[in-house]
């Protein structure tokens, strides 16, 4: 007998989740290297584009992806955390209350990280923007670590594979309604926020196409114009 399953996470939501995880990890790992600066900037713009997509998808997307489905009542969060302590948490097909707030906080921190990084490279503000950029990135990393720990804890308590659900999209059980994928809307949003990948939108701190071309053609990081002016100094040396 087959276990009943419900499609909760549509493909655009899953793609966003994993692309954001990879982009943030890559940006974090390349943050201190001048040699990898173009890649860091490119990944930062990718994070920004993904955030814009998620904000739009949270309005126009499918049932469980929409912000309207989030449980943001502080009392619900308190009750859920209390139930975790007693190992009797309520099961949610979509995001639980703690997860809902974590997503909101993560999007806000990532938006701040991307915005301050862009402003710093565009030289639009004071030098402390770089400190704010780094601080927001550190706070995001801390939240990500808490999120990962919570996912594994919830998986054990609910006896379900939450990581697998974000890969396949399915959760066990019968939900009120399965999520469908609005392909046309998804394609329009992806095209709208991904234009800079094709070099259609000028990006401060990144020569048009430099980093992407280098990755494809050479498989190595491109030295930025700023790095060249500094005589090719490399933090990795």
In short:
The protein is mostly helical. The protein contains 9 helices and 2 strands, in the order E-H-H-H-H-H-H-E-H-H-H. Helix 2 (37-60) runs antiparallel to helix 7.
Tell me the name of the CATH class: Mainly Alpha
Q: Mean pLDDT, rounded to whole units?
A: 78
Structural class comes to mainly alpha
Uncertain stretches: 214-237
Our Rg estimate from Cα atoms comes to 20 Å
How far do the termini sit from each other? 60 Å
Number of separate structural domains: 1
The outline comes out as globular
Number of strands: 2
- The CATH superfamily bears the name Transmembrane di-heme cytochromes, Chain C
Please give the CATH architecture: Up-down Bundle
Q: In words, what does this structure look like?
A:
With 237 residues, this protein is an all-alpha fold. The chain has 9 helices and 2 strands, in the order βααααααβααα. α1 (11-29) runs antiparallel to α2 (37-60), α2 crosses α4 and α2 packs antiparallel against α7. The termini are far apart. Residues 214-237 have low confidence and may be disordered.
Features:
mainly alpha; Fumarate Reductase Cytochrome B subunit; 9 helices; disordered C terminus; two-stranded antiparallel ribbon; 2 strands; 237 residues; globular
List the helices and strands and how they pair.
Blueprint: E1 5-7, H1 11-29, H2 37-60, H3 74-85, H4 97-121, H5 128-158, H6 162-168, E2 170-172, H7 183-193, H8 210-217, H9 225-229
